[in-house]
Amino acid sequence: MQNRFLALAGVLLRRARRRPVRGAGRVLVPSVVELVDHERNVHDIRDLEITDLLGRHQIDTDLDSIAGYLGGKRVLVTGAGGSIGAELCRQICRFAPAELIMLDRDETALQAVQLSMDPQAQLTDPTVILASLRDTGRVREIFRGWRPQVVFHAAALKHLPLLERYPGEAVKTNVWGTLAVLEAADGVERFVNISTDKAADPVSVLGYTKRITERTTAYVAGSSPGTFLSVRFGNVLGSRGSVFSTFSAQIAAGGPITVTHPDVVRYFMTIQEAVHLVIQAAAIGRDGEALVLEMGEPVRIADVARQMARLAPEPVEMKFTGLRTGEKLGEVLFGAGEVDRRPFHPLIAHVEVPPLDPAAARELDAGAEPAALIAALAELCERAPSARRAA
């Protein structure tokens, strides 16, 4: 009988190999064990996904049991057109908010996320807002008009090499843009600031600016009746500009695949995992802290690049280009002095964040020479905690 299942596996594999290859992709067939244990057919063949190459399974969270705070509420998502923001909007819709207000400065991205939820949607919908967080007056006007009760702040500049060249732009969007939202959000019930693992012991402009937003969010938590917190996670699979998107484009162009260093490792999450964490954080997170998801073992980027190269229809060369400015060999999830405590969920750690008075961040000179500005950002991250104002 086992030979019969092995023969079926061979048929499925031959059929899979006859399927057209899209880009650098391949397909997966069920394992022999799966074929023996369950009745299978050709529909069980599926496209190979990057999570298969990583050898990592998505962590599931029971959103329905913890996301009741979204039902019937006015919810605002900044950066709604980005990878995380768009998935947040799609997930939030499941919980029937009274209003879902989607804000972004990119009109094309706004239209795309709206159409992904409703193919008949029109950009005339007033809940789709085109605005820049750099326009403080406009941000206040939006909050006064819509009076959101829950805010997910996902808008940010994130591409590390560009931010190293243009740190002033990172200050204007990541730091001052966040301050504009924090100040306008006074009185909201819940505020979740989207951060990154690069904020733990930061060495890059992205890490510095995100650490500053964690600290200013913690400061506002002490002066607002609502709950203000941050969520920190690693690289997101499938996001725009991710390393895997770059590898795919390089393979499609015939190579070479470029990796900065043979020993570079990174933590990865799927977009769905990242968004589940963000939604859960708003339910279980406490004022001023940062929540960090257990993301398993870090992945060696060179190994993944080699596996993707093997799947290419033609041989592809791999080259090492050297670490970029502000780049670490390996990211950490917890900074120096941070303690991994998990009081409510075995996969979610809660860390304390020292508050930083937003006035200190306002003093940054975005027009300063890049090296001087980067040094000022690093100093601000290390500044002693500010005394919070009483709520």
From TrEMBL:
Family matches, as InterPro entries: NAD(P)-bd_dom_sf, Polysac_CapD-like, Polysaccharide_Synthase-Rel
Domain of life: Bacteria
Cited Pfam families: Polysacc_synt_2
CDD domains to which the protein is assigned, alphabetical: UDP_invert_4-6DH_SDR_e
Residue intervals of the Polysaccharide biosynthesis protein CapD-like domain: 75-349
UniProt family annotation: Belongs to the polysaccharide synthase family.
Protein name: Polysaccharide biosynthesis protein CapD-like domain-containing protein
UniProt organism field: Paractinoplanes rishiriensis
